[in-house]
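Lab notes, practical 5.
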Amino acid sequence: MDRFQPPAENYANPRTCFFHVLFKAAALAFYILSALFFNSFVIIFVVTVFLAALDFWVVKNVSGRILVGLRWWNEINEQGESVWKFECLDQESLARMNKKDTWLFWWTIYLSAVAWIFLGIFSLIRFQADYLLVVGVCLTLSLANIIGFTKCRKDAKKQIQQFASETIASRFSSTLQSAFSVV
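Output from the prediction step:
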């Protein structure tokens, strides 16, 4: 190993990363391998959807907060309309987020959705509408997290840009005020 080579960045939150991947892999693996061990569609449906629901909860409430500093939820207001709510860490904390953790978070949520899409295509090709239902539920849970965190990330970027422009504008105005107060 070259002593001038910088050390590789490790995961800052290995346990969170492990559980972030665990439930995705468990749901996919159980769905794929279950036909070898079970004849009951009900068992396959319940266990696969349960594992996908655990994944949804862990990603939404734990790993999203810890690995990328984002959190989202949806509320119904007094008019009965759906309102998305977003939280993110401040700009300084977001800049300090571990790159490997962030990379793992985004790639696994996108790849798991792609895997469910492929499994849905296979269910269609094999004319298995009941298994398409399992895939549909799991894909819906994956897409809900993708949409929620993508909107949250865009909202965070907008907040950072707004903060930066406000800071620049206030510095500029204070500089102008001090320049004219001297005159």
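Observations recorded by the TA: The longest helix spans residues 129-182. The CA atoms of residues 86 and 152 lie 5 Å apart.
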